[in-house]
């Protein structure tokens, strides 16, 4: 039985810069950090040979986000667009998209367009983290649109405090 989604993994080209962004700008807490170099069981699990990487497991609310920075094998830059196959983006639900846009822009997030308002239902804008990964900032404006259960969230993402 599937219990739920445990974590989303994000490949980054600058571990320190990404860790700062996800903790300071987005409010994730660091649950654990690890490094490995040519560990047989890790190679077997991820399907690589002689892998070397740093990882951090981050948490906000009821979701974990895992940052990966590989130094071996040599990573390729596969910055995706919203229409590409694979895992092109993840979305963060916010309460006030305009203030989050301003706040995240002050942390250096580069947005790919302007905030779009979908009638009275929702608003969205896409931006990139410091390593180029696409993140959707998403505000839900009515109870008919599927959204996170706030009673099960635990702690909330940063509100800039």
Verbal overview:
The protein has 161 residues and is an alpha+beta fold. Helix content is 17%, strand content 35%. Strands 5, 6, 7, 8 and 9 form a five-stranded mixed β-sheet that branches. The longest helix is centred in the first third of the chain and has 11 residues, at 15-25. The chain folds into two domains: 7-72, Roll (2,3-Dihydroxybiphenyl 1,2-Dioxygenase, domain 1), CATH 3.10.180; 90-145, 2,3-Dihydroxybiphenyl 1,2-Dioxygenase, domain 1 (Roll). It has three helices and nine strands, in the order βαβαβββαββββ.
Structure keywords:
161 residues; alpha+beta; 2,3-Dihydroxybiphenyl 1,2-Dioxygenase, domain 1; 2 domains; 5-stranded mixed β-sheet; 4-stranded mixed β-sheet; 3 helices; elongated
**Series of secondary-structure elements, N-terminal to C-terminal:** EHEHEEEHEEEE
State the CATH topology of the largest domain: 2,3-Dihydroxybiphenyl 1,2-Dioxygenase, domain 1
Structure classification: alpha+beta
Poorly predicted runs are 155-161
Number of strands: 9
- Using the coordinates above, name the CATH class of the largest domain: Alpha Beta
**Number of separate domains:** 2
Q: Report the average pLDDT across residues.
A: 86
Distance between the termini: 39 Å
In CATH terms, what is the architecture of the largest domain? Answer: Roll
CATH superfamily of the largest domain: 2,3-Dihydroxybiphenyl 1,2-Dioxygenase, domain 1
């Amino acid at each position: 039985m599937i219990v739920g989604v445990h974590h989303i993994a994000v490949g980054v080209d600058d571990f320190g810069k990404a860790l700062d962004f996800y903790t300071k700008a987005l409010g994730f807490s660091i649950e654990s950090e690890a490094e490995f170099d040519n560990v047989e069981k890790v190679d077997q699990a991820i399907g690589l040979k002689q892998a070397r990487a740093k990882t951090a497991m981050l948490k906000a609310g009821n979701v974990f986000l895992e940052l990966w920075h590989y130094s071996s094998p040599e990573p390729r830059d596969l910055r995706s667009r919203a229409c590409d196959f694979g895992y092109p983006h993840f979305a963060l639900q916010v309460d006030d998209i305009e203030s989050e846009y301003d706040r995240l822009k002050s942390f250096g997030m580069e947005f790919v367009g302007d905030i779009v308002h979908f009638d009275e239902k929702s608003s969205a804008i896409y931006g990139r983290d410091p390593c180029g990964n696409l993140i959707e900032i998403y505000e839900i404006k009515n109870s008919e649109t599927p959204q996170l259960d706030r009673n099960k969230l635990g702690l909330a993402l940063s509100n800039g405090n």
